[in-house]
Design a protein that fits this description.
Elements (H helix, E strand, L loop, with lengths): L1 H10 L2 E7 L5 H17 L8 E12 L3 E12 L5 H4 L8 E3 L9 E7 L2 H10 L14 E3 L8 E4 L7 H20 L5 H8 L29 H5 L7 H20 L4 H15 L19
Antiparallel strand pairs: 1-5, 2-3, 4-5, 6-7
Length: 293
Amino acid sequence: MRAAAAAAGTALQGLFAVYKPPGMHWRAVRDTVERHLIKGLNSLQRPEPRQQICFQPTVSEKEETGKELTLTVSRVPMLADHPLVSGPVFTELKIGVGDHLDMQSSGVFVLGVGYGTKLLRKWYNAHLTKAYTVTGLFGKATDDFSDTGKLIERSTFDHVTQEKLERIVSVIQGSNHKALLQPPPSRGFLLRRCYSPPKESKEPESDEPLCFTKSRANPRHWTMRQSMGSDHQQPLWRAMLISLILAAILLWCYLRPETEADRRAEEFLQFLQNMPQQEMPPSVPLGEDEKKP
């Protein structure tokens, strides 16, 4: 059964086109096609289920002993191959889509099944000629540029003529043809244009001290925001909160009652102040020898 299903799935490969109606999402079209294909594949006739040997008890009547229970060998279909047990053979298909169409647009919608999903990339790179038909209504403007959008502006269109429309269309066509025929810029040109080597800082030739007011370390030229970046700048409310917390901690340290640890620390500091300093022996100046007796 699995081999037959695989053969049926292998035969269903390639590219095909369907019509997408307006007002329907392209994903809904794809799901609808997939659902009908899966339904058609599962409706194919299934192969006969596999047979298995089973020993079934049977009752036979004899004149001497009466009824006797015996085992007979028989072939029965496997329950694992029954449709109610195994379920549908196909549950999903690999279907790819070509160019996506908008919700309100209608036209040819290319789909690929199986190996056709890999051909979609080649079909896209072929740049085949496509024809589009655009319809519009003069004198009205909507928020989403569609006929179902909210009307935001209304005006007269008596000044619009066929000559003006053809002139605008010819300008659009000329710009599009020029963009198609113009070769893309080389990658090396883009790299040379976007990349500029860093400027080397000039080292002073002399060893004289530099003037602070003319250097880059001058506060007029250097700020914390420039050194750490704009992302490290703290907002005003966070700075005020930190300042209030530090002020509260200092005020608590000043007004809190004196403890035993404070008295021991004060006695230790007084002991260090009253400790006599040891007299150090005079040092011998460099370059002078010691006097011998």
